[in-house]
Amino acid sequence: SRVKEDGTDPVKNFEKWKKKYNKTKTRVKIERAKKKKPEWQVEKEYIERLMSRYEEINIKDAVKFSDFPLSKKTLLGLQEAQYRQPTEIQRQTIGFALRGRDVLGAAKTGSGKTLAFLIPVLECLFRQQWTSMDGLGALIISPTRELAYQTFEVLRKVGKNHEFSAGLIIGGKDLKSESERIHQTNIVICTPGRLLQHMDETATFHASDLHMLVLDEADRILDMGFADTLNAIVENLPKTRQTLLFSATQTKSVKDLARLSLKDPEYVWVHEKAKFSTPATLEQSYVVCELHQKVNMLFSFIRSHLKKKIIVFFACCKEVQYFFRAFCRLRPGIPVLALHGKQQQMKRVEVYNDFVKKQHAVLFATDIAARGLDFPAVNWVLQFNCPEDADTYIHRVGRTARYKDGGEALLLLLPSEEKSMVQLLQDKKVPINKIQVNPEKLQSVEQKLESFLAQEKEMKERAQRCFVSYLRSVYLMKNKQVFDVSKLQLHEYALSLGLAVAPRVRFLNKTLGQSKETQVQRSDEEEDEELRRFKQQLKGDVEENAKSESESSTDNEESDADLANNKIALGEVDGDDDLRDLDLLTLKCKDVFNLKERQEEEYHKEVKEKKKQSKETKYKEAKKVLKRNFQVNTKVTFSEEGEAVQLWPPVLRAVAGNDDDDDDASGINVEKAKERLKMEDQEFDKEEYRRKVKEKHRERQLGEKLDEVVAYLANESDNEFDPSTLPDPDKLDNSESGEGEDEEEEDMTKAEKRHLNSESESEEEEKSVSTKRLKVKQQAEEEDTVLDTGLSLAEDEELVLQLLSGRR
Ligand code: ADP
Ligand code: MG
Questions:
Q1: Ligand whose nearest atom lies closest to the CA of 142
Q2: What is the pLDDT of residue 472?
Q3: What residue ranges do the domains of the chain occupy?
Q4: From the record, which residues define motif Q motif (predicted)?
């Protein structure tokens, strides 16, 4: 019945047809399979197509990232991270970088320089079809650990569709576990010292295939502080690599560029023609105030900006440490945090993330937070101390007004700093307005501080160290026109910190009596005798303090954190009149402390008169004292209570009624001392001096705990994180005893660096090359002393991942 009338059998027909069809299909399949290219070849062709578009990149037409010949993986990563349109610096540099050119990129703070180098890094390795077996392909160097973390996080975000491995190589952890994986890491983000350590110590690590070197904050990486380390690193890198340098304050120094052997670099300065060098959305002002008014100013400022996110920059770690404690006690009604180079790594990361998350908070920081950090939604940058130079100023204020956000900045200047500093800023095209403060609107905290200090010896010691450290930082500043230590009103400043008298400093002949050791302190020839003596005094004082701290201090930063978290974070305020002034101080930028023109003038007249008066009396009194007590080269003034304070050479002590240090008070034979110093000068040339200082550092470091911790991350380890697997950070932090010694060591480094130009910038964790090498050796000798976080490698990774993911 299935046979049709014409005799055909449809079923048979179908079977026949099916057979034929299957045959053809198989043939086609086989042919296709024969033709089909391996995946790598498909990718290669894709890459070739992309690269063929490199030459046609038209900056003017590039509005979206997809207008650039970027790999799908990168484009997807950008899209997923909500980056759609390139910023100006990205638009202008990506093309050059893709074509393999060396690039010097300069653009204002917050303008997107990070992606301007991360995108080319990803594309470069993609072009090479790089795999983990190929080892190191790109190296990104950051000046601080925090910035390295941050860059790493951005890389993880935009690079997550690529298969490259990425590692964070910064100080702070166990070197060994890092060593085990570094040779399989394709993209390394690092701080200079730690990288060099691997180059020196890790046998499997080599950079011979490196394709791309990036220096973020290039001018900083290239400056004196990192000079030795960077030179040593560059020696280990192949010359054929591509080099990208980025900063808001770019170096143009031919010397620097020669050091990096750049090949005909493309210089891209996005805002070269811009009227100002700082973001247009940033409002900047400065206030002139006396040193002893600064604390009150800071407190009043914070009290009037409780619903803001503020970063306050200080000159040195000890200022941060003291003011952090003091302000926690003062309970300003807003969380107070502190970030500086003497904190343990765990603490640093914790504070960093805390500040990222908080909506309203004040972060007290040193310049480790000045560069590159992209804290979201910072409203204000307040500079408690005048920055070292205009570039530092630009980077500090650049922590606010990022990308398209607005922000405000306030700089506190001493009368003696105003003229020169404002000039420097103007030269660098920084638009800054002077504003006035009504002294009556300032809340004084002096008495409160005084009572804190009376209650707690440790607090008092911190105040003293803060005082001395600040003076030393001023003294060591290169720009003597801005920074003049002789103009500081020491006694008043001490009082404002809550101290009854200015801390004492061991005096000249005592220091000289220590013979050999003091010879190390010989300064550059061009410095006059008085400056040298001052330095010796300061140092003597610091050493003394270091001892007392290591003996007496059992406390550490952790208790600071408790204070901040438990008391301040609750927004508690002393139930007194603090709140009454609030309205008066909550004012718009231009008139931060609500001062009317008329009041300004009156205030200034008043101040001037006061100054005149005190000058006259000071002069008369000084004359008397000079006759009685001092022989030559001394300048003495009297405080209101009639206490004699020697201003020059600055003794940092009240002379009157304080005779327990009898050789301090009077009768130094300066001429004799001079002669002796001269003789010593002849014996020791500069090289010797350097050697001695280094030796001293080594000694100190031998006694110091190893605080290097390694953080290592591979791109793949994107797992979930269970915080309960972590040990108690409190316990970890408590393992850090002898904090004081560490601190002193770093301070010494800073002090000597300025004069030797051979040490790195104090508080970034990087030390000089030789120091690092010594440290490693020491580590080998005393393996037991390695300070580890106590975590396994996997836990470490998780910890870092968690900390990073908690950022936004
Ligand atoms: P810089 O290094 O120039 O100071 P960053 O690279 O830190 O600036 O970027 C500043 C901010 O701008 C960051 O928060 C970043 O996420 C954001 N940003 C950068 N590029 C873009 C872009 N193309 N689109 C949107 N936001 C961007
Ligand atoms: Mg940056």
A1: 2
A2: 87
A3: 57-269, 275-630, 705-807
A4: 63-91
The domain 57-269 is placed in CATH, from the list 3.40.309.10, 3.40.50.300, 3.30.930.10, 3.40.50.720, at: 3.40.50.300
CA of 11 relative to ligand 1 center, distance in Å: 69
- The pair of structure tokens assigned to 719 is 């797992």
What's residue 569's pLDDT? 25
Span 576-594, mean pLDDT?
34
Q: Is the dihedral of CA 433, 439, 444, 450 positive or negative?
A: positive
Angstrom CA distances, 76 to 73, 191, 664, 754, stand at: 5, 29, 70, 47
pTM: 0.67
Verify whether ligand 1 is closer than 6 Å to residue 83 (CB atom). yes
Alpha-carbon distance of 686 to 757, in angstroms, equals: 12
Token pair listed for 97 = 């970088």
DSSP per-residue codes, 445-509:
-HHHHHHHHHH-HHHHHHHHHHHHHHHHHHHH-S-TTT--GGG--HHHHHHHTT-SSPPP---HH
Calculate the dihedral angle through the C-alpha atoms of 270, 274, 279, 281, rounding to the nearest 10 degrees: -130
Residue 398 Cα: closest atom of ligand 1: 4
Residue 623 in this model has a pLDDT that exceeds 90: no
What's the chain's average pLDDT? Answer: 73
| Ligand nearest the Cα atom of residue 64 | 1
CATH superfamily of 275-630: P-loop containing nucleotide triphosphate hydrolases (3.40.50.300)
**DSSP per residue, 403-461:** TT--EEEEEEE-HHHHHHHHHHHHHTT---EEE---GGGPPP-HHHHHHHHHH-HHHHH
Instruction: For 563-576, give one letter per residue: b (16+ CB within 10 A) or e.
Output: bbeeebbeeebeee
Pairing of the two strands 635-638 and 644-648: antiparallel
* Candidate ranges 19-28, 78-87, 475-484, 757-766; pick with highest mean pLDDT: 78-87
How is residue 140 annotated by DSSP? E
Q: Quickly state the pLDDT bin for 437 (edges 50, 70, 90).
A: confident
| Ligand 1 atom showing the smallest separation from residue 374 Cα | 7
Q: If phi over 0 gives left and psi between -120 and 50 gives alpha, with beta otherwise, what is residue 129? A: left
- In CATH terms, are 57-269 and 275-630 the same topology? yes
Question: Where does residue 401 fall: left (phi above 0), alpha (psi -120 to 50 degrees), or beta otherwise?
Answer: left
**Nearest listed ligand to the Cα of residue 154:** 1
Looking at this protein, which amino acid is placed at residue 30?
I
- Ligand 1 contact, 74 CB (< 6 A): no
The verdict on the CB of residue 109 being under 6 Å from ligand 1 is yes
Q: What type of residue is 233?
A: I
User: Which three-class secondary structure state does DSSP give residue 345?
Assistant: helix
